[in-house]
Hints:
mainly alpha
Amino acid sequence: MKFLLWCILLVLCWPLALVALVIYPLVWLLLLPFRVVGIAVEGALGLVWAIVTLPARMLRAL
């Protein structure tokens, strides 16, 4: 989908498409630390949820 949008942009305005082609990897690299933090936070929240719901799951298993 992104490639198709880029091709349309290339036909309509090729300088903007070339700028987007250069900037896209830089933006991806800038956002990479936020993705790593998001994965870590999601894992920590999953652990907390598992600890909180552990007694209910143990009672349900009995």
